[in-house]
Amino acid sequence: MSSPATAKLSSLQIAFGPDHSGVFEAGLPVLSGEPVENLFRAASPAGKTGALTLFRANDWLLGAASVPLTEGLEAASHRLYLDIFRAARGLQLARIWNYVPAINEIGSSGLENYRLFCRGRSLAFEEHHGAEFKALLPSASAVGCGSEAITVSFAASAGIPRHIENPLQVPAYDYPADYGPRAPSFARASVVPGTDQSATVFISGTAAIRGHATVAPNDLAGQIDCTVENLREISTACGLGPYLDRRGNSQRHFKVYVRNAVDQPVIATRLEKEFLKPGDRVSYLQADICREPLLVEIEATLFGVNL
After folding, report:
1. Rounded-to-integer distance, Cα 280 and Cα 103, Å
2. What are the phi and psi torsion angles at 16 (to 5°)?
């Protein structure tokens, strides 16, 4: 995935706690913006479950792991998700981030790696929750990384989240079989109520998909237009208005995944125009997107939202 130029860039670090007591490498070159994502700065170590290293931050349970693909990508994904369910027992999953090696390449079974990952993830959800698992799927993202290990991090809460779909899109978990033997297992957004009358909102990785079809394949301008429209729509569905709470007092964190590094300035200019405000934290990362014709994907995490 990395070009000679981006191979020299630092890789995004996923950190927990004020002293970065847990740091995980996502395998994504940082093109611009913040090189460390530390969403839960109050987190403290809370032991291990399986491959996962766990942290606590008030009512949140957090965890992350990087696992080599010794048994293959599908088996590693399945095992990691079963570890997440064990760790989060009694809590509600609100957000999962997935960094999948060579996500668009074809695996040894003849399936694209993203589809192998989706099958392992979906089967784990069904094994744990039963046939009605779709109603419990949290927000998520899955992008390609340059690592030889799959890295997954999650956030689970004592609060019961509302999982929300974009009216302009078919829910990912209802995609037709054209997109693989098991549909992607995530909601477009999750809203988690807090104990102080505010909420945490997780907007999943959002790209140029309308219904279930890719919009403007390999056309950056067309994809940015569609992605902005999708972000406005899911923002409105969450109760944030059309601009991701730009006029509110929430703390906002954006991650922008860019397939081609040369496109980053154009994407940044549009994101700044449409959504950003002073104080926002943004990381622009080079990553392959889950569909090969997609060039950009944007996610957001908002703390202290007044709904």
Report:
1. 29
2. -135, 135
Which of 100, 144, 117 shows the shortest CA–CA distance to 2?
Answer: 144
User: Per-residue confidence of the chain (307 residues) as pLDDT tens digits?
Assistant: 545 455 589 999 999 998 877 899 999 999 999 999 999 999 999 999 999 999 999 999 999 999 999 999 999 999 999 999 999 999 999 999 999 999 999 987 899 999 999 999 999 999 999 999 999 999 999 999 999 999 999 999 999 999 999 999 999 999 999 999 999 999 999 999 998 889 999 999 999 999 999 999 999 999 999 999 999 999 999 999 999 999 999 999 999 999 999 999 999 999 999 999 999 999 999 999 999 999 999 999 999 999 8
Q: Which residues are catalytic?
A: 297
Distance CA 299, CA 142 (A): 11
Q: Decide if 94 contacts 157 (C-beta within 8 A).
A: yes
- Cα 34 to Cα 38: distance, rounded to the nearest angstrom: 10
Contacts of 1 (CB under 8 A, 6+ apart): 102, 144, 145, 146, 286, 287, 288
Query: What count of other Cβ atoms lies within 10 Å of the Cβ of residue 18?
Result: 11
